[in-house]
Amino acid sequence: MIKNNSKVIGEYKSVILNLEKKKIKGRLFITKDGISFERKIGILSKKFEPEFFIKIESISIIKKEGYFDILITQKEDNQVVTLTIDTPVETNEIIENINTLVNENKKRYVDKKQSEIDERMNQINYSTYIYDTIFKTWTFVSLLFNLINETMKYNWDRVDEMMNEFDELSSTLNNNKINLQDDTKKIKTAIKSRDSITIINSIKSTMDSLGEVLYGQIPYKEWKEFTPTVKPVWQNLQFFYLFTVAIFQADYFDKLGKKEERDRVQANVLKYIPIINNHFSDNLFDNSKYSTKTFRETENTIKQLISETEEKIEKLLKDSLKQVSLLV
Question: Do 174 and 62 belong together in one domain?
Answer without folding.
Answer: no
